[in-house]
Amino acid sequence: MSSNDNIVFRAEAGGALRGRVRVPGDKSISHRSIMLGALADGVTEVSGFLEGEDCLATIGAFRAMGVCIDGPEHGRVTVHGVGLHGLRAPSGPLYMGNSGTSMRLLAGLLAGQAFDVVMTGDASLTRRPMKRVAEPLRKMGALIETSPGGTPPLRITGKQNLQGIVYSMPVASAQVKSSLLLAGLYAEGQTWVTEPAPTRDHTERMLTGFGYEVEREGHTVGVEGGGHLRAANIDVPADISSAAFFMVGAAIAPGSDLTLEHVGVNPTRIGVVNILKAMGADITLSNERLVGGEPVADIRVRASRLRGIRIPEDQVPLAIDEFPALFIAAACAEGETVLTGAEELRVKESDRIQVMADGLSALGVEAKPTPDGMVIQGGALKDGRINSHGDHRIAMAFAMAALRAGGPVVIDDCANVRTSFPNFLGLAGAAGLQVEQVT
After folding, report:
1. Could you give the CA distance from residue 385 to residue 63 in angstroms, rounded to a whole number?
2. What is the β-pairing status of strands 409-412 and 9-11?
3. What are 119's strand-pairing partners?
4. From CA 422, how far away is CA 40, in angstroms rounded?
5. What pLDDT score was predicted for residue 2?
6. pLDDT average, residue stretch 241-251
7. pLDDT, tens digit, for every residue of 316-325?
8. Backbone angles phi, psi at 305, to 5 degrees
9. Catalytic residue positions, numbered
């Protein structure tokens, strides 16, 4: 569903978050479980799958290419793999909805197929940059066309002989890295990708879990084409990106004491924890364990007085999706918070730097956008009306802001919350946030 429906959230001022909550499954891992399960030999069982619209778009794409997928039902999905070379040409374009992850990762995977394919998306996705994956894939021999502006739709011509490459990414991006590694499964020789800073490594971990050899040397990761994937069982942990809204809400709302259960704490994803701790948040991890090769823990957050900081640039790639929530924490902190090195935020589902700055200003917070970040002066939040511009993370971040606002916060254009967190209102309400859909 696109954000054409003007769904409006209204969050009442005040309150605290308490109790125990398990947020939905990790979106990144859910996507990859379907992709690798489809390419594997045998049957893959997935539990904890995120039943949001982005991940359902990935399921739909593979069904269109002849893969039998049962579910999802209560987070359980069964994928009947067809092997690396078993996909079939879809009868029409693959519609990826709002999911940039689906489109970018599938670009690499589809570059190695024997058939032509077109990928399209909703209005938001068709504005998002795809040159970052198309250009290195072309270096491997892929034939990919974008719009003149480098955006979707993507047209991929099959039956190309891909060659492994050595590629240094100009900007840290897990999606680009993953796309090239998936193309590398079909390439002759080795494909090596070097990233300027660590990014989430779910693809590498899951490839290993499916029995495919992955080599790592520092910031460089590589695969050799011509292998096989063996079906595996995947237990998807709770998504730290979804947990981030509750972490920030509990940190800023007096009287809060909230435990988030079974959260994925992959070292490449815990920037939000590190940044909040640096701001003075009271956060403890317990029951730490490995589930399917992914580290998992329960995260307890208690209300505390936050202070503004200069966010370390080495933490930016580890928290890139969590900055809408972190901007709310900065608005409630004492003093100034400075973010740099985050130009990637300008090409997400919205220009998250400008949209968050506009929203914070509407609530009376001094927020100055910069080309690669923002400067926020913490202070009192007033009531106000926010335009989320169809960005699910913007909508959920400002819902949590109401916990410290002087009056209700009304948020327009919230339909795309369904893409990543379909039961957000119910879980947030159960934890203590007074929020509802009013249209």
Report:
1. 40
2. antiparallel
3. 94, 154
4. 29
5. 39
6. 98
7. 999 999 999 9
8. -85, 115
9. 321
Amino acid occupying residue 275: I
> Pairing between strand 143-145 and 154-157?
antiparallel
Measured CA to CA, the distance from residue 234 to residue 231 in angstroms comes to 10
* 266 closest CA partner among 243, 293, 245, 286: 293
Query: Could you identify the residue written with the tokens 């920030």?
Result: 248
Q: What is the mean pLDDT of the chain?
A: 96
pTM of the predicted structure, to 2 decimals: 0.89
* Strand ranges of the sheet holding 435-437, from the earlier edge strand across to the other edge: 384-387, 409-412, 9-11, 435-437
What's the distance, CA 408 to chain centroid? Answer: 28
User: In this structure, are residues 287 and 263 in contact, taking their beta carbons and an 8 Å threshold?
Assistant: no
Confidence (pLDDT) at 291? 86
Distance (Å, whole) CA 157 – CA 136: 16
Spell out the long-range contacts of 123-127 with Cβ–Cβ below 8 A and sequence spacing 24 or more.
Answer: 123/2, 123/3, 123/4, 123/390, 124/2, 124/3, 124/98, 124/349, 124/350, 124/390, 124/391, 124/416, 125/96, 125/97, 125/98, 125/99, 125/100, 125/152, 126/151, 126/152, 126/153, 127/151
Distances, alpha carbon 96 to alpha carbons 24, 62, 269, in Å: 20, 11, 24
Structure tokens at 55: 């991940």
- The Cα 417–Cα 423 span in angstroms is 9
Q: What is the share, in percent, of the chain residues with pLDDT greater than 70?
A: 99
| Cβ neighbours for 73, distance < 8 A, ≥ 6 positions apart | none
pLDDT at 240: 97
What's the rounded Cα separation, in Å, for the pair 203 and 201? 5
Residue owning tokens 């997400």: 348
* Residue 364 to residue 360: CA distance in whole angstroms: 6
